[in-house]
Model the fold of this input.
Amino acid sequence: MPFFLVGPTAVGKTALAIELAEQFDAEIVNADAFQVYRGLDVLTAKPDAEAQRRVRHHVLSQISLFETMSAASFRELARAALSDVHSRKKNAIVVGGSGLYLKAITHGFDQVPPPDPKLREELNRLPQKELAERLQKLSPELAARTDLKNPRRVIRAIEIAASVIPSRIVARDAVCEPRSAPAATATNGVLLLRDRDDLYQRINERVNAMFRDGVEEEVRALQDIGQTAASALGLKEIRALIAGQISREECIAKIQQATRRYAKRQLTWFRHQTTFSQLNLTPFSHREAVHAITQMFRRALE
Done:
């Protein structure tokens, strides 16, 4: 089993993963839903060229922006990468914040339960807003991957969320659930956290940095993009900016707000769906954090 370094966006996973990988002769397997695509490097906050030079990365910039991606498809890419890493007697560190993709590594897939006619009849009487709220309560992560404006998809997701306990996974084109394999244990991973104000400040600064690094020009250069990649956080706001529908300041504020909300959903999912040890980075220096995670990794290897 690889070592998992997970947490919400902007918590600081990449820098810590690079140092950890260098110490333990490890390679990194990406578990970010959008960094798997080629392109949109600034928008998706991919590890920069220097980080990729220092440590070999897998499942990064691997598929075209036009391709459809799902948790099941990702699992096949990740399994192949992990097999390659282990065949060369290297350690593997899975790094990311996409809960569904991480769960895809630790669990296999079975067919979902059949439709529930009685529940479906009840749900069909509810307004769209109430359907979305119910799904968000049942499974924030599933809600984040479902088109909440599509009642048919929301109803099906609610059926799955209500019948699959404790874990749910949904792919974009095919709905799946994890097998009843045990969840990743506390000994082979760490959930990185920060105090809310600290994390939100980092998110706000990351969005500002994206614009300094040319994210607007990156999006402007896009010719076309597939449906899955088009849901990357911040893309629709930047397209609205380019179209003259909102100002640059409004665009930045909207992306910052959307990213903060996404981070909150990520934290909810991780706290309910994993048993990883938790490490709040706010009180520690970078050196202290590296030391603490190093100790965790050593114990996982024993």
In short: The CA atoms of residues 238 and 244 lie 10 Å apart. The first helix runs from residue 13 to 23. The beta strands are 3-6, 26-30, 57-58, 91-96, 109-111, 169-170, 175-178, 189-193, 277-280. The longest strand covers residues 91-96.
